[in-house]
Amino acid sequence: MSEVINVTAGTEAILTLGTTAAMAEPLGTNGMIIPLMQDVTINASPGIVRYSVLDNPSSKAFTTVNENSVSGNMLLDEDTFFGPAAAGGLNTIADAGLFKTSTDKTEIFFSIAFQGSDSGDHYIAGKGFISGLAPTASMDAAIWLTPIEIVVNGELSKLTK
Amino acid sequence: MSIRTLILQQLANTLANGGVASTDYSLEATELPWTASGEPLYVKNMRVVYVSDEEEAKIQLYRTLDQGDVYQTDTMVQAFLTEDAKNINANNPTVIENMLNAKSVVNTANGYNVQIAESGYEQEIEGDTITYTFEYTFTTI
Question: Is there a domain that residue A1 lies in?
Answer without folding.
Answer: no
